[in-house]
Amino acid sequence: MTLVPHPPSDVRRYRDAGLWGTATIATEFHRIALLHPDRDAVVTTAGRLTFRELDERTDLVAAGLAGLGLRPGDPVLFQVTNRIESVVAWYAVLKAGLVPVATLAAHRGHEIGGISRRVGAVAHLVEAGLRGFDLVGFAREQQRDHPTLRHVLVIGDDARGVGLDSLGAGIDPRGARALVETIQAGIDPDAVAVHQLSGGTTGVPKVIPRLHAEYWYNAVEYARSWGWTERTRVAHLIPIIHNAGVVCAVHAPHSVGACLVLATPDLDEALPLMAREAATHVLLGHGHYRAADHPDFDAAVKAVTQVVLSGAKVPPALFDGIEARGLWSGQLFGMGEGLFLTTRPGTSRLARATTVGTPLSPLDEIRILEPGTETQVASGAVGELVCRGPYTLRGYYDAPEHNARAFTREGFYRTGDLAALVEIEGEHHVRIEGRIKDLINRGGEKINAEEVELLLLRHPRVTAAAVVAMPDPRLGERTCAFVVVDGPELTLPEVQEHFAALDVAKFKWPERVEHLTEIPRTLVGKLDKKRLAAEIADILDAERTGRS
Length: 548
Ligand code: AMP
Known about the structure:
ligase, AMP-dep_synth/lig_dom, nucleotidyltransferase activity, ANL_N_sf
């Protein structure tokens, strides 16, 4: 079974409780656009679109996509950055009944090749003119020997693909609207709307199917958790076509008629845009935890009433520093698989500073289990956070073996995160205490350790490998590879050349290599990652303090 459905009794419960709607995402968006036609829907440094403009434009592009022969259910790979056209493409693809696959612009052949074959991608959307890499040329290459990938769609100008701009040219707007309505009428609200990618599982990234009603509901509850209205202006700096981007910055603001102020990760660009557009809410991922040190920060947050920190544990000094500027701060814990926790307005300062709050939905169920078991820990103790609910997946796409390990018998998703439930002012909040899943969290981008180890072992001279996170002041963590090699030691450039030759996304390349004669193992024979992580932390400490 490729798709694991929610049990019918739960589906009924979610609908009876009014959580799941009966419309597709494209239909929900159109309904909102009719309610708020003249409000800004999205603003970037390059331009702005009102809801009416975004709605009309995406109808036309959707009709153009249908005209190419793309059919409802066809998966479309998205490999784009934070541009206004990316938001246009998002809704246009949904309106045409197609299924966006949220890959990263940083992904390369190793990732895209596997993912696009697993989902049977039919089109590949890329952007022209990306600094440093020819995504259009890459997309053309990916088509080779790929039985399903028929179209390269391009944001910007490039004759090697079909321009998004040209799609819909000359189409009658009323005809386009009618076509979109016909397409949408044929889509089940519980069908797959979007494929997200998992950051936190073993081996290659797994595909997370998100369904129309539950995915929209996720966003509606997110907006509700912060008390957003149509006057909210949500700034977003991290990749938009990622789960946090789509839920927190596209669907959630749009679900209430609010505006997305779409910036890029570059603070020199993002902060002035926030100032000009009077952003009222900003989500800061780990890579931007130090944004407050930037000279343009104060001007950027003049109208901001909520600063949300997310992606990695929040240091107390950081939280205090932001609040000391008179900025209300909160935390978000979220994942592509579903569950979101937030510290809502009204949450005590202690809970906002030290926990990630409470689940979005009244029907979310969370438990803390002894890792590897189905036994709940004692009240307040640390264990693995597991969850089940109206917007958490019941299984990865086409991954039955992995699903058997990733879920409890009762269908709770094992997050791989360590957490404790703490009581503050009579309410239970979740405090994140670490993780048991083997990954590196590089500025919010997850790197799977096992995936990198398997890639290292493909080097002809590497006989054993273990990959661990090393602390980094800017990104939180970076990848350190411990290797055992045949012959002379491998230099870091040699290792990186190997990853380049395998066409692996650069953010996954090891950033340090240490040589061992043997990889230490635990008593049960597993790679002793704890020991290696401690070892590299010591080495870095010694280097910093000048000890040898
Ligand atoms: P992704 O699906 O890429 O968004 O990654 C989800 C994972 O990011 C979670 O399972 C956590 O390991 C991590 N994460 C997200 N938010 C937080 C947070 N506020 N604190 C600590 N870890 C977090």
